[in-house]
Amino acid sequence: MTKKNDPGISCSMEEFLGTDEVESVTSNTSWALKERLSFKPPLCDVFRQPFHLLEDTGEFKFHVHPEARKHLPDIIENVVQKIAGNENPEETAKQQYTKQRNIGIVFSGGPAPGGHNVIAGLYDAMIRANPDNRLFGFLMGPDGILENNYIEITADTVDSYRNLGGFGMIKTGRTKIDSPSKMKKAKTTCLTLELDALVIVGGDDSNTNAAFLAQELYQDGVQVIGVPKTIDGDIQVRDVNGNSLCAVSFGFHTAARAFAHNVNNLCSDCSSDVKYWHICKVMGRVASHLALEVGLQVHPNITLIGEELADFIDQERIEKAKKEGTTDYTAYGMTLRQVSRLICDGIVRRAAVGKNYGVIVIPEGLLEFINEIQVFIIKLNTIIADYNNTHDTDFHSQFPTLEDKLEYLRQMARMSRENRMFTVWNTRDDDLFNVLPDFFQEGLLTERDSHGNFQFSQMETDRVVMGLVEDYLKMLADRGVYKNGITVESYRQTMEEGGLDPDLYGPALFRDYKPDNGFLLVKESIVSVKTLKQNLVKEEVIDPDEDIPKPVETIYKQSVPKFKTQYHFYGYDGRGNDPTWFDCTYTYNLGNNVFSLIANGATGQMAAIRNLEKEFKDWEPIGLPIGSLMHLEERMGKLTLVMERALVDIQSPAFSVFAAKRDRWLAATPGEDCYRRPGPIRYAGESEDARPITLILNDLGSDVRPGDGS
Known about the structure:
Layout: H1 13-17, H2 20-25, H3 31-38, E1 51-56, H4 66-71, E2 81-86, H5 91-98, E3 102-107, H6 115-129, E4 134-138, H7 142-146, E5 150-153, H8 155-159, H9 180-192, E6 197-202, H10 204-216, E7 223-228, E8 237-238, E9 244-246, H11 252-273, E10 277-282, H12 289-298, E11 302-303, H13 306-310, H14 315-323, H15 336-352, E12 358-363, H16 371-390, H17 395-398, H18 402-418, H19 427-435, H20 438-444, H21 461-478, E13 486-487, H22 488-497, H23 502-509, E14 519-520, H24 529-538, H25 550-559, E15 565-570, H26 572-575, H27 581-599, E16 605-610, E17 620-625, E18 630-635, E19 638-643, H28 653-666, H29 693-700
Helix pairs in contact: 6-27, 11-12, 15-21, 18-19, 22-25, 28-29
């Protein structure tokens, strides 16, 4: 190349743009990508053996739902299976293990970091067993199965995606194979391709699909294996005795780390310019696992956990009801108003020590844990459905504006006062509803989906909560409760530079004036320049006809807080992130596990790794019976057999540690904040997290009895 910056040498721009060096610098393949593609995740010891067998174990038991037994008769007797290594099995077992197979794989639902390594692990394992094995990737999710749309996955394909995030290799989709016609199409595709096995990588719904497909294809000899995927972390499996068999789904650790890194950047920002509260909503509609992990990773000033709010009991209201000889069912579960008060308390306490800034983490599904919101949704669903069933026009056409709808609800509240039998919408409902911000009222009253259900995903959870917070903070400011703390040094310097005696004015200005206090709070009665002067006159530090001294007015204005917010949503960026070492390794071993299950004839099983909460050397690949994990749940207005999702256990060691430390992390004291820097995601190196903090803490506290140390 002729370098343009070499002395005495020049070249045209056209020549410069065509050089190899320019192409190298601007290539799609960065050095970081090259290193990722070449990273080789370690294998569990069992997978280092040339052959693998399955060992049925009666060690773990489940409560099997009668409906699961009814609808999944051919796979419901499955048990937990351990993968065992074998160097030289019997010839029959060896032939079974190494026979040529056609295997299909599909991604279902949203992306989760590590999916490509499931494919890589499966591909490597099956090629080791028999180089003639073939792997077909169905494109665009389950639609690829229904439409027989696939690619054959080769070594070059796999090598192009090792350790990378996203589901770009074969894409994904949310279609469910949940009807007889779809089942028939899926079966036709599997039989046309002469598949020996189908692997479904997905969340609770997708693994439910895997169970029903396993049942449907059982007589055709097509095995179906599920793989636990969801960044929400709500696929967790325990047996009836509480033994952890699958501590978390893949993708969770990477998403949490990605969110944590971004949230920590905001911690650095807010503590630098000290004027914003950053409101961070993180994915997790059904469970708050991501919010809890981010809280433990970063130590934000306030982190809300939906499951804890749902578990709240208002003892004052219970006692009041007891005295009245009644039961107050609304005393169970925190109300929106109480949630807003909780946040306001933290904001006010921080402002009092000069920290009118901070970071709040809110789980996406927070509103689903608020009892009053669920009650509102049930009642409004009933009101709207009843209206549509009894009138010639529908509710939303008859009442097009928010005010029209609110007036109709007011009429119903008046009816409840006149007729005690009318309980669908009473005065208390109306009063609580009118406290909500207009946009949230509008959201709760929007048109239902085709099944008559409320569309929760359309709600801006963070703005709903913070709208109430801002209203209450204004009220607290008007009452003189919400104030910025003033440092003694700043106060004395301002006064002395203005030629005033700080000790003369201090008792008139501040609540508990002591020259050795770290921070001073202006009296609650001083809420305006007018009340400031009244206090100064009352304390006889100025005469009624005197103006307020400029330094005193400056101090007052500094005490008046300005509540400024910035909103952030963390979801899609985390689920598309390149995976951590934990997820790279977890998923690569899951892929190997999938082949071991297939090679030994398993079907209706979910590949899993036991002991994820422990060090890598203790990981134990197993197969879990999906049918035994099913329960009935309301979906789309009817009870449906689905795989159960796990919520945050507020009795767990991880949550207990979080609860014990959150007041320290609020940092409502003079001095530095307690923010933790998790650092960027890596796939190797001593600085990389070995596993999620929630898993580490739960393992550390596994022998601690509830209540110990309290």
